[in-house]
Amino acid sequence: MAAKKVLIVYAHQSSASFNSAAKDAAKEVLAAQGCTVEVSDLYAMKFKAAATAEDITGDVKNAAHFRYAEETKLAWEEGKLCADITEEQRKLTEADLIIFQFPMYWFTVPAIMKGWMDRVLTLGYAYSEERRYSQGIFKDKKAMLSFTTGSHESMFSADGVNGDMNVTLWPLQNGILHYCGFQVLAPQIFWAPSRLPSEARGTLLEGWRTRLQGVLAEKPLSFTPLDCFDGEKGFQLKPEFQEKNASKEYGLTVGIHLGKALPPNSQMKAGV
Fold it and tell me: Where is the Flavodoxin-like fold domain (predicted)?
C-alpha cells in the first residue's frame, strides 16, 4: 500500500492542552506507519476566520452585491484566491485522511476552525451542485472529527441535558464533511478530560494511539446515497426507498429519520 498523506487541522491555543497531546499522538503514530503528516495549527498561523472579499486578489465580479460562494468559485478557477486559502487547499488536495482536532465550543467547532471550513472548502473546489454528498468531490478521501468536550458523556445522551451527541454531530459530519463527499470516519470523542485525573487522561490518549494503528483501514459511517433522492422533485427520498423503510423501526439517518426513532449511534459508530 502506498504511503498515505494526512492533514491534521488543529485548533487550540495552548501547547500544554489535551488537544495538543492528542494532535501530537496522531502525528507520531501515523508517521511511524510511514504516513506523511502535515499540521495546520490555526491559532499559531493566526488563520483568518472571516470569509470576506479580501480572500480574492484583484477585483471581484460584483462589488455592489458581493456573494462569497460565487466570487470565490471564480477566483479559484482563475487562480486568484489569496495565499493562505491556496496553501490550505494544496494540503487538502494532497491528503488521504484529514483529522480535525479541537475542543468543542458551543456544541460545534471553534470559530477559527469554522473559518477554515468556510474559506478553504470553496464552491467549485470542494463541492458543486452536481458533485456533493455520496457523489462529492472528496469521495476518495477520509475525514474525521477528534475533539474534547467540557461535559461528561452522560450529559450528551438521548436523555441527557445536552441531548444526543448523534444529533449534535449531524450538521458537522453530514452538512460539511459528507456534503463535500468525504468518507466520514467515526469521531474520536474525549469526554471531559479536564475533569479527569492525569492517569485517566493518559488512558484516553493510549486508546487514541491504539485506534490510530488501524484508522486508515476503518470503514466510514453510513449516509443515504444521493441517488436515493429525486432531483426533479426537490431532492425528496424516492418512493421506492420510502416503501422499503416503511416497516422498519428506525429512520435512515439522524436527519433523514422519516418521522421514526433515530438510528442509535449512527453518527458515532460505523456499520449501524
Answer: 4-192
